[in-house]
Write a structure and sequence with these properties.
The chain is mainly alpha-helical. The chain has a single domain, classed as Tetracycline Repressor, domain 2, CATH 1.10.357. Helix content is 80%, strand content 0%. It is elongated, with a radius of gyration of 19 Å. The N and C termini lie far apart (59 Å).
């Protein structure tokens, strides 16, 4: 029985990985469940084992994407054993790297669909809190000038929301990955001793 459950879980994870890849490449608003099933070479009933509707499927795929991305970002941060500035930079650049495969169409669809947008907003809030913690650690260690970590994190969160809502892309032409790299440079240089 355990082997069957393990195979089901593996197949489910594989389907979500394929689904995320499809959505990142092409977006999702224009796709029907029939389109998705055909592209993933599965039945619609298989998709219904993942979620009850297209909106639920998109939300679940978005959760899957951000859960995997969060793990990758934390792994990238764990590899940095140098100073606080390098850790903030590594964190924000890793966020950008995780968003790099996302097409403009995916990001636009994400901004328009409430369930998926909510997942992005929640992950943005978590990332901003992580940045606040990293900055506070750097201030405490004397590596950053004395700044309010809460204020800097609030500015970072505001920028992250603007990135998420496509405002930065419209204003600068930057994709999300570029925007996060620029944000990392701005923050670390702005609070450096």
């Amino acid at each position: 029985m355990t082997r069957v459950v393990g195979k089901r879980a593996a197949r489910r994870a594989e389907l979500f990985d394929q689904l995320v890849g499809l959505f990142l490449d092409e977006g999702f608003a224009h796709l029907t469940l029939d389109d998705v099933a055909a592209r993933l070479r599965c039945s619609k009933s298989t998709l219904y084992t993942l979620a009850e509707s297209k909106d639920d499927l998109v939300r679940a795929a978005t959760v899957h994407f951000f859960r995997r991305a969060a793990d990758e970002v934390e792994e990238a941060l764990a590899r940095v054993d140098s100073g606080a500035g390098d850790r903030v930079t590594a964190y924000l650049e890793a966020v950008g790297d995780q968003l790099a495969p996302a097409s403009a169409r995916f990001m636009e669809d994400l901004a328009r669909m409430p369930g998926a947008r909510g997942v992005y907003e929640q992950n943005t809030a978590i990332a901003a809190e992580r940045v606040r913690t990293l900055i506070a650690e750097g201030v405490g260690a004397g590596e950053f000038r004395s700044v309010s970590a809460e204020f800097v994190a609030d500015v970072v969160a505001s920028t992250m929301v603007r990135i998420q809502q496509r405002d930065v892309a419209r204003a600068t032409g930057f994709d999300d990955a570029q925007a996060y790299r620029e944000l990392a440079a701005l923050v670390t240089r702005g609070i450096a001793r």
